[in-house]
Amino acid sequence: MTATHHGIYGLMAEFDDPASLVAATGRARREGYRCMDAYSPFPIEELHEALGGHHTRLPLVVLIGGLCGCIGGYALEYWSSVIAYPLNIGGKPFHSWPAFIPVTFECTILVAALSAVLGMLALNGLPQPYHPVFNVPRFALASRNRFFLCVEAVDPKFDLERTRQFLETLEPREVTTVAD
Amino acid sequence: MNNVADSRQPVEDPNRAYVGATTPDVIAPGHTFSTVTDKISSIVLTKRTPLGWYAGFALAGFFAFLLFVSLTYLVFKGVGIWGNNIPVGWAFDITNFVWWIGIGHAGTLISAILLLLKQTWRTSINRFAEAMTLFAVACAGIFPLFHTGRPWLAYWMLPYPNTMSLWPQFRSPLIWDVFAVSTYATVSALFWYVGLIPDLATLRDRSQSRVGRVVYGILAMGWRGSARHWHRYDTAYLLLAGLATPLVVSVHTVVSFDFAVGIVPGWHTTIFPPYFVAGAIYSGFAMVLTLAIPIRAVYRLEDFITMRHLQNMAKVMLVTGLIVAYGYGVEAFISWYSADRFEQYVLLNRLFGPYAGFYALLLLCNVVIPQALWFKRVRTNVPLLFVISLVINVGMWLERFVIIVLSLSRDFLTSSWGRFAPTFWDWSTLFGTIGLFVALLFLFLRFLPMISIFEIRTLLPEAKVSDE
Question: What CATH number matches the domain at A3-55+132-179, 3.30.70, 3.40.50, 3.10.110, 3.40.1000?
Answer without folding.
Answer: 3.30.70
